Amino acid sequence: MRKILFFLALGGLVGYVGWTYFTTENLRQTGRSTRSTVVAVETARVKKADLGDRMVFTGSIQAEERYDAAPKIAGIIRQINFNVGDKVQRGDILAVLDDDEHILSVEQAEASLKVAEAGANDAESQLIIAKRDFDRTQNLLREKVVSVQEFDRADATYKAQQAKYETAIAQVELARASLKAAQVRLGYTRVAAEWDTGASQRVIGQRYVDAGALVNVTIPILSVLDINTVRAVISVSEKEYPRITQGDPVLVTTDAFPGRRFQGRVSRIPEELGLLTRGAEVEVAVNNPDSALKPGMFVRADIEFSRRLGAAAAPLEAVVRRDDGSRGMFVVDADRSSVSFQPITEGVVDGKLVELVDGGDLLDREVVILGQHLLKDGAAIRVVDGV
Q1: Is residue 321 within 8 Å of residue 344, measured between CB atoms?
Q2: pLDDT digits over 145-156, tens only?
Q3: Strand blocks (E) in the chain
Q4: Which of 97, 100, 269, 385 has the most Cβ atoms closer than 10 angstroms to its Cβ?
Q5: How much is the CA Rg of the chain, to the nearest whole Å?
Q6: What is the CATH code of the structural domain delimited by 58-63+228-307?
C-alpha cells in the first residue's frame, strides 16, 4: 500500500513539473511570436509637386537628308577626293572617272562643228551670189532684156542656194548640239556634290568603292548626309498615337552622351499605322549644331503631354497591388506604430513620383516605401528611416 502511494505521489510530481515547463515554454514562444509581427519599414511623405504627364519612346537617328552620290555614266574611277567624315560643300567634286574617251569625243564634236560652220559660210556666200543674179535678172526682165526662161533659171538657182544655206545652218546647230552632248558626257566624269535645299555644307557618311573600280549608274560611290538637323524616328503604339501632335517639344537622350539632352520637336506624324505593328513611325526634328548625333544611334525621346501643378505626389515604389486587384498604399498612423491600407487612384507618373488623384487628405502623411510586401491592414511597424 505504501509503495502504491509513493508511486502515485511521484507521478503527480512529475506531471506537475511537466505541466509547469510546457506552460512556461508556450508563454515564451507566444511572446516571441508577438514580437515577430512588428515589421521594420522605411517611409516617405506625400508632398506637393509639379508633375509632367510624359512618356519615353525609343527610336533611332536618321539624317535629315541623305543621298548616294553615283556616276551618271559607266567608267573606271580615277580618284576619290573625299573620305568618311569629311565635310563637303555644294558643288565640290567628289570623284573623277577616266575621261580620255570623252575628251576625244569632245574634240571630234568640235571638229565637226568647224566643218559645219565652214559649210554654212560657203552656203551663205553662194546664196549671196545667187541673190544678186536673181535681182539682176529680175531687173533685166522688167526691161525685157532677158527672157522669162532665163529669169526662171535665176529664180530656181536662188531658191536652191537658199535651201542649201538653211541645210548648212541646221547642220551647224546639229554639230553644236553634238558638241554640247559630248561636253555634258565629259562633265559626267566628275561626280559632284549636288543638292538644292538646306545648308551649304554636308558630311560624307560612307564610302562604297575605291579608286580603280569599274562602276556604272547603279553603283554609288559615296553617301552624302545633312546632319545639321537630324530626325529621331520613334515607335509610337496605337494607344499613344492620338496623344501626339505636331510641334510637341521633345527631349532626346542617348547612351552615347550620358546626361546630355538634345532639344527637338515632333515634325512629322504619319497618317497610316503599320498593319503588322499597329504602330506609327513618328519623326522628331532634333537640333544637332555640333554634329554629335550620328545616323543609326539609339535614342530615347521624352515627350511631355501636360503638367500637373501642385499635385499630391508620392514615391511610385509606395504603390502596392493587393490580391483582389486593388491598388493603394500603406499609410503610417499618427503614433507611427501601425499602418492602414489606403486605396488610391493613380494619375500622372513622372519619373519616380505618382500623382494621387483626390489625395489631398494624404498630404504630409507618411507612406511605406520599403517592407510593404510584409504588411497587412493594421499591421504593427517600426519606422527605421522616416522622412
Answers
A1: no
A2: 888 888 888 889
A3: 39-45, 47-69, 75-80, 87-89, 93-97, 190-192, 201-207, 214-215, 222-237, 249-253, 262-268, 279-287, 298-315, 320-321, 327-332, 339-343, 345-350, 353-357, 366-370, 381-385
A4: 97
A5: 47
A6: 2.40.30.170
